[in-house]
Each structure stands twice: as structure tokens, then as C-alpha cells.
Design a protein that fits this description.
mainly alpha, HPT_dom_sf
Length: 106
């Protein structure tokens, strides 16, 4: 089972600054769908290096959303891709879908 995203890190970082918190959330809401789409484009076109690069970028969103295990999965998947493997792809996609659903609620 994939861990659930949360805003604990964002809330800790923002403290009482609601404007900063909202700005941070807007960045996540705007960037994540684009990065997810980019990921699938690279996978579809078998651009392995570019896929590894977007996985690297996405893993930081996992960390921001309190998804430590998913962050570790992304680190492993990034290394797999660079070795010509994609064993963790289905789990990675599951994490992306989980985050996408979560973002709709915040």
C-alpha cells in the first residue's frame, strides 16, 4: 500500500505565514501535473535519460509531501533507469496517481 501524502512539512516550513503556505501549495498544484505528463511522455518515447531526470525532479515533491518511502522508491527507480531497468515503474506510477488524487483535495 502506498503511503498517503500530507502537508506536515509544508505547514512546518510555513509556520503562521498563510500566504507563503498557499504560494507553496500553488507551486505544487501547478508543477506536479506538468512533471507527471513529462514523465509519461519520456516513458512513451523511451527516453531513458530524460525519464531518470524527471524522476529525480519528482522525488523532491514526494519528500515535500511527507512520502519518505516513496522518495526512497524514486531514488531506487532513478538508479534502475540509468542501469537500463524499470522494475519499479508500476509502483512509481501508483505514487504519481496517489499524489494526483491528493492534490485535488488541497
Amino acid at each position: 500500500m502506498i503511503e498517503q501524502p500530507n502537508l506536515n512539512y509544508v505547514d512546518e516550513l510555513a509556520g503562521d505565514d498563510i500566504a507563503f503556505r498557499n504560494q507553496f501549495l500553488d507551486i505544487i498544484k501547478n508543477e506536479f501535473p506538468l512533471e507527471k505528463e513529462e514523465y509519461f511522455g519520456h516513458v512513451k518515447n523511451t527516453r531513458v535519460k530524460e525519464t531518470a531526470e524527471i524522476v529525480h525532479k519528482l522525488k523532491h515533491k514526494f519528500n515535500i509531501l511527507g512520502m519518505e518511502n516513496s522518495y526512497k522508491l524514486a531514488v531506487a527507480y532513478e538508479m534502475e533507469l540509468l542501469d537500463g531497468k524499470h522494475d519499479s515503474q508500476s509502483k512509481f506510477v501508483e505514487v504519481l496517481e496517489t499524489i494526483e488524487e491528493y492534490i485535488k483535495t488541497i
